[in-house]
What does this fold into?
Amino acid sequence: MGIKMRINPVYQKELKTSVRSFRTALILFGYNGILALFGLFAFYVTFEYDSRYGGTVDYAAILRIYAIITAAEFGLVLFTVPALTAASISSEREKQTLEILLTTKLTPFQIILGKLASSISMIILLAFSSLPILAIVFTIGSVTLKDFTEFMLLIVSTAIFIGSIGIFFSTLLKKTTSATVSTYGVLMVLGLGTLAVLWAIRIIVEIKMNQLSAGAIYKPDPDIGNWILILLMNPAVTFLSMIEAQIGTGSRVTDFFGHFGTISVNIQRYWFFISIILQLVVSFILLGCSAKLLDPLQERCCKKKRRR
It folds into this structure.
């Protein structure tokens, strides 16, 4: 007997609707067409133009092409996923179809997972479809299959992480606009807010150290301790740590950490994987909270408590 895989009905319905549309094919063609043109142009500049007029070929430029393409795809996830997921539940509520969805045999958690999967599936599809274009760096080596695997792991985990934030606000708030603004706001806090907090703590520590060591010849650099670990929740730092390890861009991330003090060598070495695991754990917690908020029984209990 064959094993029949059960696909989430919500995801299956959304997937059929999106895949059958001409818009999906057009997006795939346009996105990969632009990346392919960029890659071909970069190859021409690197091997044809530089060798003809400069006399040398800068092979490191190919690695920069890889970094730029992956950064573009990562940026696509950061700016697109919030808009897609923030409307997943709130739009059903606005169309007054959420009650019908809740009357099905699906549990609230299954509905949440289906909405998340359908929202981020296009982004992940775009990332996987661009792998042949990224593979142009195989012609000169340096970037391996392991690096590609890490990049796809980053794209999928970041999409789930940001998507879970969007799903949470989409469930918590009634309006799509409010959910979208809140999701982008949290993303700004994770990206820029964590850096601002670290710099503020560093300035405070530096002021206190200057007061304590007033008149001393040697003044030690400020160390904010484990506060730097909040950057594990910053997707941009996760991406930069991956790129630095893959293409050897020097020690820019390491030098950046040095401005705030010292951290464990093992944490710094495995920063990429620790960050992904932590973000996935937070994602699971947010999805669980979203399922509870979506549960009709839970919602009724909350309303009764408010009346009391």
Observations:
- Residues 1-5, 300-306 have pLDDT under 50 and may be disordered.
